[in-house]
Amino acid sequence: MDLTAANHRIPLSDGNSIPVIGLGTYSEPKQTSKGSCKTSVKMAIDVGYRHIDGAYIYRNEDEVGEAIREKIAEGRVKREDIFYCGKLWATHFEPERVRPYLEKTLKTLQLDYVDLYIIEMPMAFKPGDEFYPKDEYGNWLYHNSNLCATWEALEACKDAGLVKSLGVSNFNRRQLELILNKPGLKYKPVSNQVECHPYFTQRKLLEFCQQHDIVIVAYSPLGTSRNPLWVNVSIPPLLKDELLNSLGKKYNKTAAQVALRFNIQRRIVVIPKSFNPKRIKENFQIFDFSLTEEEMKSIEALNKDVRLVDLLLWSDHPEYPFHEEY
């Protein structure tokens, strides 16, 4: 494994490359104090992170952009050192809405381009500026997805220089094949961002993606918050796992560092979210040890094939991705 703290990019199929660890920036807007995202991104860049994962819908891209621009102004990094991933939300899948929504991200970040722009999930909602549209009875307002038409609009954004690479998130095999087999496909997805950790290893999806040169980016690589509104809390907390902790003792590392190392040794990109200075540092310290083949197998055996982030509130959507095996 040739990845180091100073050089940890892996290649993408379009000739670009992606840092194997990034800082996730999603946080509940109501529970996050103003400025904490900016402080965390600046600190992450100082620690050595070069990959920041965000989205317009997180409502903090202004802070992310400020942090990046301040670090560039300080001479700490150049724009090309930073890899920023933004996301197209479900209410903007209509082709004519794609570019204006991406431009909102660019305007908020005050950057000229994003490095990766991904379809956040395959399920379309009623087009409009309401992020979570519902009718008067509280029912979700869905919309028919035409993922191929959305993809063509994204390809035009890449041609216009607004984005370097294109990808998807929460897509299953069938939905990926829909794009891969699209007549006249110009740019194939370079990545699929999905939940992936030792309790949910995504073996079959990983195999399929690797066959098609698609990098898996793991969200919730350390498990996730225990919010029962959108998280399956029947699974025990990953970081209390006995095996991960005993391997942590062996290497003088935390269970979290072992879980992250497990994924990067599988050539999976990890984007742990933290606004905690100590954890931001710790999560990055995964380049000075490696797990043996035996240890990798024993961590793989922890797989429970159960999702934490199952998005069940939308399970009646015609494009809900998780009814299928992978």
TrEMBL record:
Site positions (Lowers pKa of active site Tyr): 87
Record's keyword terms, sorted: NADP, Oxidoreductase
SUPFAM superfamilies: NAD(P)-linked oxidoreductase
Name of the encoding gene: LOC102430721
GO molecular function: Delta4-3-oxosteroid 5beta-reductase activity
Active site: 58
Gene3D superfamilies cross-referenced by the UniProt entry: NADP-dependent oxidoreductase domain
Family to which the UniProt record says this protein belongs: Belongs to the aldo/keto reductase family.
PROSITE patterns according to UniProt: ALDOKETO_REDUCTASE_1, ALDOKETO_REDUCTASE_2, ALDOKETO_REDUCTASE_3
Keyword NADP included in the entry's annotation: yes
Example of a GO biological process term: bile acid biosynthetic process
Domain (NADP-dependent oxidoreductase): residue spans on this chain: 21-303
Protein species of origin: Myotis lucifugus (Little brown bat)
Name the UniProt record assigns to this protein: NADP-dependent oxidoreductase domain-containing protein
Entry keyword Membrane: no
